[in-house]
Amino acid sequence: MYTAVGLGLIVIGAGLGIGLVGKGAMEAMGRQPEVLSKIQTAMIIAAALVEGVALFAIVLAWLVS
Amino acid sequence: MRRFFRIVIPFIFFSLFSVFAFAGNEKEGKGKEGDFDALEMIMHHISDSHYWHIVSWNREDGSEAEISIPLPVILIYDGSVHIFMASEFHHGESVVQKGDHYFKLYKDKIYVTGPSGKLTLNADGVPLNTKPFDLSITRNVASMWMSVLIILALFISAARKYKGKPSMPTGMQSLLEPIILFVRDDIVIEQIGEKKADRFMPFILTVFFFVWINNLIGMVPIFPGGSNVSGNIAFTSILAVFTFLLTNLNGSKTYWKDIFATPGVPIPVRVILIPIEVVSIFTKPFALMVRLFANITAGHIVLLSLTSLIFVLKTIYISPVSIGMSLFMDMLELLVGLLQAYIFALLSALFIGMAVHEEEH
Prior knowledge:
The complex is a heterodimer. By secondary structure, chain A is mostly helical. Chain A has helices at 2-31, 36-64. Chain B is mainly alpha-helical. Chain B has helices at 2-28, 38-46, 139-160, 172-192, 197-219, 233-249, 253-260, 267-313, 319-356; strands spanning 51-58, 64-70, 72-77, 80-85, 96-98, 101-106, 109-113, 133-134. In chain B, the strands form three sheets. Chain B has a three-stranded antiparallel sheet with strand order 4-3-8, with no helix packed on it. Chain B has a three-stranded antiparallel sheet with strand order 5-6-7, with no helix packed on it. Classes of the chains: A mainly alpha, B mainly alpha.
């Protein structure tokens, strides 16, 4: 049962993190559409790193349970 | 409006009738053994197998019939190599004798047994028998070879056109050229830099296409596809090991200095910083490995769960929901397949770019 709670917390964290990354990127794109592709690459890298941490946690939760 | 109905009505009919056929099977076959086990079905589909499964159904008398291609088994045990076809196992029902040894297939794994083929299970139902060293051509290996052949066929036919005089791109060339240029300009040159891009371009391009094609083959639900190659931890770990080796073997002086003698940091802080930096050398490729594995496996699990929904709830009326959601997830997975290939290539290029970067004064 603790694993389920942990997975829920992981999802909250990852969702919040990727959401903030997306928010920041979209604001930047709105302000400076001319560097859109660069912002997109940076956004995907940042989102991938946040996701990486979340996946670590998921794998650990799976191993511990 | 007519167009809308032309799409929706066949969809509803298709979803209802296909499920009638499925649900009918369920009652005759598995009904006796108990309820439909969604977890076991899903685990069987996402794990590797010694058979390439095509189709299975239940006969009128309730027995199970199956069409599948047995794949070669290569075992190394006790210093000798045994090669035979997986059909000798008869889906785990019979014991195979090779020399003095007996082998038995149990839940897609091969175990060494006595002549009777008896397995000793522990409390969790996992056999305690020793396992031979298994180098079999399993479903994942066969599927991976197929994707290698597809990539070779695509690229050799496109590459041939660059011989001789430059001309307008035609055929496969005009499909591949923009993607290759995208990988070169937006991934490799941007992250590694113009000077060293040529050295790492072959690796990044290969990884991108290999992961992408394998993701796409995994999305095909019928026979030549359906294997879970890029959702296999061994597959992704080998790709990550390549990135790890390329990153660290090409590491410049600046790269190692940033790890072991971070400039402008007092010595007491370095004591904390060096272990963190050393651990991060290993966590970067580890994250690459887990990301691809988890994303693709999660996609397969969600799709199979949506299909299992019909059998778990034992009603046909859920089928439009199930099939509609499956269609949506399929579309999403096509995007995820491309995105994960892109992220794998991009992060590999980023790590390599960070390692080869030289300090400029």
